[in-house]
Amino acid sequence: MKRHQHLRLMLPLVACFLLACSLFQREATTEAQQNEQATRVAQSIAATLTAQAAPAQASISSITPTPQSQTALSAAEIFARISPSVAYIETPTGTGSGVFIEEGYLLTNAHVLWPFESVRLVFPNGTEFIDAPVFKTDLMVDLALIGPLETGIPALSLADGEALPVGSSAYLIGYPGEVEAFPQPAIAGGLISRIRQWPAADITYFQTDAAIAGGQSGGVLVSDSGQVIGLSGFFFAEMGFALSASSADLSGRVARLIQGDDMSGLGERHISTSGGQREQTIILSNVWDTAGYVLDAPPGSDVEITVDSEADIEFMVADAFGDNILATDDIDGVGAESGAFTTELEAPYFLFVRHFEPDDQALQIFSNYGLAPYQDVDDGTEVAIGETVAASIDYPGDIDYFILNLDAGETVEVVVDSVMIDPFLTLDYPEATIDDILSNDDDGGGLFGLNAALTFTAPQRESYFLIVDDSPGRDFGGYFLVVRRVE
How many CA atoms lie within 13 A of 18 on its CB side? Predict the structure, then answer.
């Protein structure tokens, strides 16, 4: 069964290399094929999403288009109008930005806050919240709300800027590259240089050439008339552009989040260290079944972990940045695996455990610090042909597996669509040799050209494994798994 181990260790390395070379210069499929596939995927996902309840009405969803004829303001006027409502966000692992909106919440990106349940906020006038609570997150489209906040800070409305033509002036306001405890926001100007679409979640993205750096995430994109038309979240330093999600498309999701609805379909995915124990026993049912644990130890702690089983096993420890802190594997056979490391971050660490046998195996885990089990609700989910599943890579290094039952001769197309992770897709089955296992990294198109897709004809009636993980193994967040029949 070591074929699984080598596949898991080798293929993500290839994927990382391709990602480092270029995000957009792929030739695996033609542009027409990518567009056709993206349309099919979007239609499948849209059919699933329309089955959900209609969006609840809220004031934030009642936004009006930004007229092109509005008088343009100077950069100084825009900054004076918008910046008082843009907050600096600080967590133990990084910084970001957020905008105070009408309902009394601070709107930002989910990746700015993760995995913390409270954060520090500072507004330009010096107003400080030491432990502002994280209210809701949407890990599918990278949204989060902090609050509600009781403050006299002026709240901003979200505006519809999608009618603005390419070439319009736009400004980013936030806290890029900030190191001060009580900083002031920064403004950068540029153009709306392109419009990009993510059909799966019906989100429009403004591409701008305004200068951006780490810490700007969660900041605002502002039109030259002083309207908040987008939330900045992605930037591509080598290519010199940033992407901001359209306020018009986000407003409905924000309203639903405020009312407590689950817009992503992912449910609650909080990382919690409660219930941690130093000894754990787990039964894993197959080579793709995994166990995850959250370890929270103060910086400078010397952590020792041992995993024992009659099966051949491996375990890895990653930090909140996705860096592998500890990885052990006895390639020669069964027996206990042990390792130690010293914590450096004031943030959770993640233990990932698996075995390489085809059937149930018991594993015992020992640690000198408490380990809180993380229940991965995606693992073992059955997926039917024609179904779209919303799922999530819950922490760096997480692997999700799904069951797809096929009859001999059935042909399916499987696509993983995401803006949060670089999906890596594998199809396996119990009797497969290493040559039978299919995998794909970037042939599925998508907003960044990083979606995974493969087409498979079942050689026999079987329960097949569909495995999804993040190609570099560093990121987390939601994705859509789409399975459709190919005639």
Answer: 20
Global pTM value:
0.89
Question: Which amino acid, residue 387?
Answer: E
Report the pLDDT value the prediction gives residue 263, as an integer from 0 to 100.
Answer: 86
For 133, half-sphere exposure in the C-beta direction (CA atoms, 13 angstrom radius) is 8
Could you tell me the sign of the dihedral formed by the alpha carbons of 442, 349, 274, 361, in that order? positive
Residues near 388 by beta carbon (within 8 Å), at least 6 away in sequence = 44, 45, 47, 48, 480, 481, 482, 483
307-327, pLDDT tens digit by residue? 999 999 999 999 999 999 998
pLDDT in tens, 13-43: 333 322 222 333 333 345 555 556 566 666 6
Tokens 């941690």 correspond to 276
Which residue ranges form the domains of the chain, and what is each CATH number?
2-47+269-485 (2.60.120.380), 63-258 (2.40.10.120)
Q: Are 448 and 392 in contact (CB under 8 A)?
A: no
Confidence of residue 132 (pLDDT cuts 50, 70, 90): very high
- Using an 8 Å Cβ cutoff, are 326 and 316 in contact? yes
Nearest CA to 218 out of 95, 98, 79, 93 is that of: 98
Distance from chain centroid for Cα 176: 21
